[in-house]
Amino acid sequence: LLQHCWSVIQHDNLYKPSIKIPDKIKRQFYRIAAILEDADFEFKNSLEFLSIYEANYGAYMTAQEINDKINSLELVYDTAPDKSKELKLILRIVKLARAVEKWDLNIKLLTDFVNSNNSSALRELGLALYKYYAKNPTGTKYQQGQKYLEEAIKLDPEDTDALTCLGGSWKKLDLKRALDCYNRSYNVNPDDTYTGVNYFITNITLNKNIDILDYSLPAIKNIIKMSEEQISVGINVPWAYFNNGLFKLFSKEINESLHNYLLG
């Protein structure tokens, strides 16, 4: 935005005038342009980090703090005059409960919203069901969780979280189906580290070779970059270190790989 504004000012005042602009003034314009470029870059970075924080704010809280927050939000929900209109509040609770793996709570809270036609509610309910009943992956409840995830994806085909969750539900049952989900998610958002890690590992496991690494260096470097950004703001630790270590290994940076594993 800053660069765009500056380009307009510069074009109108530096290039359009009929008079010859002295070199000294031109250099001043160029210095200002460089400062604004840096400012623009820092604004962009700050907004990206803010979006990462918003998506993972539970990661900045202790388990006790998360549970306390859940209890306070549940109290608000319990006193709501019309609970059917409180889906937004429920999703806030569910997001926190997911961070501490309270799958039974999420099942209880979301069951009443199955018919809400809300992709986020269906995704979180599907995830909670297959996680809570993970010991019986061929059971009815587990399979119902998968169905809810599929419904969520139909409502929002670009929901990478739902696609990745569905992939996770197939890992122990059908690696090909798992890889298909990870591949779809990765194509939507190659910057998502969780998707990227699962896509590469599942591909290598299924095909029993590492050929994919030979033509995926730019993608590997991108996952390393995103993992390092997570580390820099303290989220997804220690997994961000482990992911970074794995993909440093894939890019043949052995010492850096070991260093990240030690930090994790």
UniProtKB/TrEMBL annotation:
* One Pfam family of this chain: TPR-S
Residue spans crossing the bilayer: none
Mind telling me which InterPro entries this protein's record contains? TPR-like_helical_dom_sf, TPR-S
Q: What is this protein called?
A: Uncharacterized protein
Whose protein is this, by species?
A: marine sediment metagenome
